[in-house]
Amino acid sequence: MRSIVTGGAGFIGSHLIDRLVARGDEVLVLDNLSSGKAEFLAHHTSQVTHIDVDITDFEAMSPHFKGVDVVYHFAANPDIRLGTQITDTDLKQGTLATYNVVESMRIHNVPTIMFASSSVVYGENAPMPTPENHGPCMPISLYGASKSAGESLVSSWVGTFGLQGYIFRFANIIGDRGTHGVIFDFIHKLKRNPSELEVLGDGRQEKSYMEVGDCVDAILHVMETESEPLNLFNLGSHDTCSVRRIAEIVVEETGYTDAAIVYTGGSRGWAGDIPRAMLGIDKMLATGFNVKYNSEDAVRHTARVLIEEIGLEN
Amino acid sequence: MRSIVTGGAGFIGSHLIDRLVARGDEVLVLDNLSSGKAEFLAHHTSQVTHIDVDITDFEAMSPHFKGVDVVYHFAANPDIRLGTQITDTDLKQGTLATYNVVESMRIHNVPTIMFASSSVVYGENAPMPTPENHGPCMPISLYGASKSAGESLVSSWVGTFGLQGYIFRFANIIGDRGTHGVIFDFIHKLKRNPSELEVLGDGRQEKSYMEVGDCVDAILHVMETESEPLNLFNLGSHDTCSVRRIAEIVVEETGYTDAAIVYTGGSRGWAGDIPRAMLGIDKMLATGFNVKYNSEDAVRHTARVLIEEIGLEN
Questions:
Q1: B246 shares a domain with B231
Q2: CB pair distance less than 8 Å for A137 and B136
Q3: Nearest-angstrom CA–CA distance, B32 and B52
């Protein structure tokens, strides 16, 4: 099997590549290292080829799709908050990049795509847990809008050109090699100032977290068991964890137990943040897959491995 | 009230402008006349100003948003089938143009947008009638993908930047000044060859049709009665009409009653066509608005006025 992983030097993509290599795939990584890291791929040998290319550049990226069997499309701006400041990042690195991917697949007859979408496509006030058939999906962040647009591009290429699509709406994915997100931020804040941890919002934001190993195992399991033209699955765990609890866990795991946890207040971390989110995972469970970690376990595990990776000593 | 109507020289936009002028609005029309026609605006005087600008050109279009109160965004590629041949038309004229619109509104503090979306965002196999909360929305045409992406851009600008949004998912809108669509096509085919009418598909495609006057009245009614930050409404009529019945009505109205109606066969008109579609309109009805025409009446009325506009004599 010859696979492309866009954003393969990133957090989730690099974990997926570990699994693909283990099962014998030949992997082409399209990643311009804007947020991914070459070191996440450094342990691989000839099975993995890294192409340093910007997938927003159609002419440069498209030729690599020749002879490929499946595309795992992870590449995107990873910073949801950035959309509040710069409004065309998600449009270019999300929507336009996804167009470039599906169009390159059409041109080179690549049959199957996996698209990394997100729980944020559901927007606010969705029922918790949110099932895949919730509607209308009205994302409130520019990142969410680009993921929703990406889903529609995939579904239209399925409907018009016969592509096969797997769309996964991820809960908050956390684990080793994480390069952003609340746990990552808390560790860096405590590293800078071990006596205080500032938390954006009132700490009551509450979301479901999924460990990255569970996430990539779920992806490959669903792609092996399901074979519709278009397959849409939420991927998450069975429960949620509050930001307040995450702050406590990170403080415990750093050992900076004297740190004062200070809340900036307000129900949202930032404009476009969804305060409460929990995905319905019955459809995933029905495929025979279950997670190893629930949210709090995943948070604690991630805090430990990221403290190891980041290091607390300056 | 100072309004912008993008695509205001087009079919639905020009009808809306007639209503806006009647109520005293000052209207700025942004339209490059790629499918709109200057003659649809020719009866207006100083209340309507036409700017010949391509809204995919951000630098050229954005300055016109200064001092505007509300934007009605209709501009788009009107030809759904084109996406099967050219894959970036809907991306550019739909998704990117809508980004340009909402971003210009953010920059110039324009508070309110109306976005013209479509029943095709629901994709295939939706329940009939389809309510606004149907999910997941998985469009199968590239046009549908661009409308879905446009909705998400609007909702994210609402959620992140405080825009107020009215999103309308239109049934098939028909009536005078129509420049495309099945009735328009049938009349032109019969004009070329009065002895035969070729119908794409098996004629069993069945959709709901809404008369354009009903459509623009519904838009203005909903915008007057509803005031949520984001307002999503299907606009349609109470029933459907089959393509077979449309063909019969057009043949009757042309008077070419000897014409043989020939079906190319297959359940779809083209790849990406949705064979059956009917919008749930309970939410629209609950605002106190009702349509004057049902589907078949709208079809017959449209056949008459388009035969008048197009002319059957060569």
A1: no
A2: yes
A3: 5
B77, B82, B124, B138, best to mutate vs chain A, most A CBs in 10 Å: B138
Q: Which tens digits make up the pLDDT trace of B47-70? A: 999 999 999 999 999 999 999 999
**Testing the interface with B: which of A108, A155, A167, A228 to mutate, by most B Cβ within 10 A?**
A155
User: What pLDDT score does A263 carry?
Assistant: 95
**Is residue B250 in some structural domain?**
yes
A170-195: average pLDDT: 95
Q: Could you tell me the CATH number of the domain that includes residue B158?
A: 3.40.50.720
| A6 within 8 A of A55, measured Cβ to Cβ | yes
Total domains present in chain B: 2
What value of ipTM does the predicted structure carry? Answer: 0.96
B94 in any annotated domain: yes
In B, which residues are within 8 Å of A123 by CB distance? 155, 159
Residue in A closest to B143 by C-alpha = A156
pTM: 0.96
Write out the residue range of the structural domain in which residue B259 sits: 178-208+239-276+294-310
- Give me the residues of chain B with pLDDT under 50, please: none
Helix or strand or coil: residue B114? strand
Residue B144 maps to a domain? yes
Examine residue B102 and state whether it is found in any structural domain, yes or no. yes
B84 and B100 together in one domain: yes
Residue A314 pLDDT: 58
CATH code, domain carrying B201: 3.90.25.10
pLDDT digits (tens, 9 = 90+) for B143-163: 999 999 999 999 999 999 999
Burial group, residue A72, by CB count within 10 angstroms (0-12, 13-18, 19+): buried
Q: Is the peptide bond before B136 cis (omega within 30 degrees of 0)?
A: yes
- Once rounded to an integer, what is the mean pLDDT over residues A189-208? 94
Q: Which residue has the tokens 């002419």?
A: A59
B79 neighbors B142 (Cβ within 8 angstroms): no
